[in-house]
Amino acid sequence: MGERGEIMQLMDEMEALVLKKGWPVPFTPYYLVNHEKMLSLMDQLRASLQDELDSRFIKAFAPDANNPSGDTEKNVQKKSKGKERSH
Predict the structure, then answer these.
(1) Is the pLDDT of residue 2 over 80?
(2) CA 36, CA 44: separation in Å to the nearest integer?
(3) Which of 2, 12, 42, 58 lies 20 to 30 Å (CA to CA) from residue 66?
(4) CB-CB neighbours of 26 under 10 Å
């Protein structure tokens, strides 16, 4: 399962913990939930989000196999604009 699917599944589990397994507090908008289970789900969600952010960061800044110099297209454009201005 991809990171996005895992994140959505964890969020669904958190929602179910509140709405299906939580106990409504009479005359309030609050629910009692198993805090250990909620904290565990939050830790899993945090880890999944961090993994997703790390992989996106690596993809954004890792050298491209077709461009071993590590110059991204944006960097190449910036360098060429800088050269044009210096003339």
Answers:
(1) no
(2) 12
(3) 2
(4) 6
